[in-house]
Amino acid sequence: MAINDIQKWTLCLCACSVLVSAAEILLPEGAVKKSVYFVLSLIAASCLLRPLENIRDFRDVLFEGASPDSSEMIVTDWFGEAANSEYERRIMSLVADELKRHGVEAKKITVETSISDGGSVLINKVRIIVDAHYTERLDEIETAVMNDLGLDADIVVR
To answer: Phi, psi (5° rounding) for residue 119?
Structure first.
């Protein structure tokens, strides 16, 4: 959860508490007050549970790992852990296909993604590791990835 999300959540909780306080002060005792409290409690509960609406994204990131076989390249994040989101697997597949189209076989593709406040997937960084015999073609590889896919990638020779 980003700081901006925490600020929005806190603002929502404060607004709910102000509404409940105003209702307590302004409404007379009786059935109307109980009905308003019930509605306000539903609003407050939805506000409290709001951070859980993105739980599907977190579950994708944490639990849905790639099922690698001998022919499948594994996308990894910057910490070397297997990529767990469908987005990263798709990016890896696109980059690997584009490299193959140019006659390049990558050893490893590293992808760093994040989710924006609006729920869009942001590609922060792509890192491609290739064999040393591609040293003379690094500019060609970088241009192919940039022009054909629109990705800014670091090409590393190992």
So the answer is: 95, 5
Nearest one of 147, 136, 151, 137 to 93, comparing CA atoms: 151
Torsion of CA 126, 86, 98, 146, to 10 degrees: -40
> Which structural domain range is residue 48 located in?
3-55
* pTM of the full structure: 0.46
Name the domain count of the chain: 2
Tens-digit pLDDT profile for residues 64-113? 443 333 333 444 444 344 444 777 888 888 888 888 888 998 888 888 88
Please tell me the distance from the alpha carbon of residue 145 to that of residue 99, in angstroms, as a whole number.
8
Query: What's the burial of 39, exposed, middle or buried (CB within 10 Å: 0-12/13-18/19+)?
Result: exposed
Structure tokens at 40: 């306000």
10 and 87 both lie in a single domain: no
Other C-beta atoms closer than 10 Å to the C-beta of 20 total 16
Whether 126 contacts 154, CB under 8 Å: yes
Q: Which two tokens stand for residue 21?
A: 């306080």
